[in-house]
Amino acid sequence: MKKTPRRHAGTAIAAFCLIVASVATAADNEAGVPLSPYDAAGAWTVERQGRAVCVVRLNSERSGAGFGLRPDARCGDVLQGATGWKPTAGGLAITGQDGQTLIGFGRWSNSLFVSSASGGASLQLKRGLPGAMPGTD
Known about the structure:
alpha+beta; 2 domains; 8-stranded antiparallel beta barrel; globular
C-alpha cells in the first residue's frame, strides 16, 4: 500500500507533540530541588482549598536571615508574622522576624509549592497572579 502525504503529515504531527510534551515535562521536573532566590523572585498566589487567598512577592535581595517578602493586605490571616523567606533542601520556608520558619513548602514543580499547614489545611504557592499563566506577573 502506498503511503499518502496525509499519512506522513499525521506521523510528523504526532512525533512533534511527543517531543514538545517531553521537553515541557523535563523543564518543570524540579520537585524536591532547592529554589534559587533569583528564580523565586516575583509574584506568587497563595491558595487554600483551590481558591486564591492573596498575593505575596518574593524578593531575591537579602533581608535578615533570608530574603525579602512582601505580602498583600489579604495575606494577614494566612501569613501572619511573615517577614521573609529562605530556600530549603526541598523547597522554601516563609519566615518570621527572628528568621524562624513559620510555614514550610515542598517544591512540586517550578511553579507550585505545597504545604500541609497546622490543622490539616493545605496551602499552595503558585507562581504568578491569580488567574494568570504560570511565569507571568
